[in-house]
Design goal:
With 216 residues, this protein is mainly alpha-helical. Helices cover 68% and strands 0% of the residues. The protein has 9 helices and no strands.
């Protein structure tokens, strides 16, 4: 959630990107083309839905040949997985920067939640992943892979920065906190503005209470 995976665990470490590719771009122009493909896929899913979007329509939107899409991504499912990994990288960087001056673990929870909400509102990539149904085992490489990675990274932050007592129960509590925080964010996005503050005011303390037994 807030710290990068080690090089040995990052499937994209050799390609220099935040996600694995079928073929590694060797020039800046090729790297920009990959980003354009991902941006086009985001726009297609947001506008037309995951089922209606196709590699052909994504290629047209990116103004490239469909073969160029297949050069890097074997199918639409892999494209969405790459978007999520890019999201994860962007989110990690944004949260790391914002947490630099945070001295209280409750504030750290709030900052990660607020950043998640902000990026879902402003970054089409986040909306595309939600609309594609990522979280379904048919779309994820392994069920729960993205939430589990977020939870593991945030648990490490709480241990190293705030003195959390590491244990199996603590890790489960962090996983539950991540899942509840994402659900709270999605709920807030679809409520009338007048209701959002009430829901967040009730929801934040619930997230804090899950972690309180494991922190000083």
């Amino acid at each position: 959630m807030v710290t990068p995976s080690s090089a040995g665990e990052d499937p994209a470490a050799d390609s220099g990107t935040a996600y694995p590719l079928r073929r590694t771009p060797t020039q800046d122009r090729a790297s920009r083309q990959v980003e354009r493909i991902l941006d086009a896929a985001c726009a297609e899913v947001v506008e037309r839905g995951y089922d209606a979007a196709s590699t052909s329509s994504i290629a047209r939107r990116a103004e490239i040949a469909v073969g160029s899409v297949y050069r890097y991504f074997p199918d639409k499912r892999t494209l969405i997985q790459a978007i999520e990994r890019r999201n994860q990288h962007r989110y990690t960087e944004a949260v790391r920067e914002r947490l630099a001056a945070v001295a209280d673990w409750r504030e750290a929870v709030d900052v990660t939640l607020d950043t998640f909400r902000e990026m879902h509102r402003t970054d089409p990539g986040f909306r595309a992943v939600v609309l594609s149904g990522l979280g379904d085992p048919d779309l994820e490489a392994t069920p729960g892979e993205f939430d589990d990675q977020h939870a593991g990274e945030f648990a490490e932050l709480l241990v190293l920065r705030f003195g959390a007592r590491d244990s199996h129960e603590f890790r489960l509590s962090v996983t539950l906190t991540i899942a509840m925080g994402e659900a709270l964010s999605h709920l807030a996005e679809r409520l009338p503005a007048d209701d959002v503050e009430y829901v967040l005011a009730q929801g934040r303390p619930a997230l804090h209470r899950l972690l309180e037994p494991h922190l000083p």
